[in-house]
Amino acid sequence: MSGLPVVSSGGDLAQYLTFMLGGETYAIGILAIKEIIEYSGVTVVPMMPESVRGVINLRGAVVPVMDLSVRFGKPLTTQTKRTCVVIVEVASGGDEASQVVGVMVDAVNSVLEIAGTDIEAAPSFGARIDTRFIQGIGKVNGRFVILLNVDEVLALDETETFIEEAQANRALQVDLNQSHQQT
């Protein structure tokens, strides 16, 4: 990450890693970022929600990779030469202190320092993504940067709920098919 440019906007500063996703600029607080790696494919895991592309082996650890574009209700991220996986540490809902998750993005831009006075609260309407995913909106050089709440965006508890729902739906479908065949 040391090769990324750092842009300062003065004042009481917080650093954010900015990246592109579907032509829009998003950011995650730098303290949650562990590393950035080149996207080289994933191992697909059956019965996962569409937003979870699969898992990668990161120095012996199994790390789930989430496609943020799908998480936000948009099409799958198309792999290009600039596609990256941002490795993020998020709070875990269970007994564990944290969970490591990969985030698939179109391209990583830079590290920005944004003053607290340049951050607005998440809008209550009009945003293209669920507002609980938004920590705030940063104003940088006349442009807006959507600051993501990584603990909400990457909540794996929700993923577990999706798996349970998918399994229940599959069991219901099997039951319906069996009862239909018997009649």
Descriptive terms for the model:
OB fold (Dihydrolipoamide Acetyltransferase, E2P); 183 residues; seven-stranded mixed beta sheet; 3 helices; single chain; 12 strands; globular; alpha+beta; five-stranded mixed beta sheet
Secondary structure layout plus pairing:
Layout: E1 6-8, E2 13-21, E3 24-29, E4 33-38, E5 52-58, E6 61-67, H1 68-71, E7 84-91, E8 98-105, E9 107-115, E10 119-120, E11 134-140, E12 143-148, H2 150-153, H3 156-182
Structure, explained:
There is one protein chain. This protein has 183 residues and is an alpha+beta fold. The chain has one domain: CheA-289, Domain 4 (OB fold (Dihydrolipoamide Acetyltransferase, E2P)). Helices cover 19% and strands 43% of the residues. The chain contains 3 helices and 12 strands, in the order ββββββαββββββαα. The chain has helices at 68-71, 150-153, 156-182, and strands at residues 6-8, 13-21, 24-29, 33-38, 52-58, 61-67, 84-91, 98-105, 107-115, 119-120, 134-140, 143-148. The strands form 2 sheets. The chain has a 7-stranded mixed sheet. The longest helix has 27 residues, at 156-182. It is globular, with a radius of gyration of 19 Å.
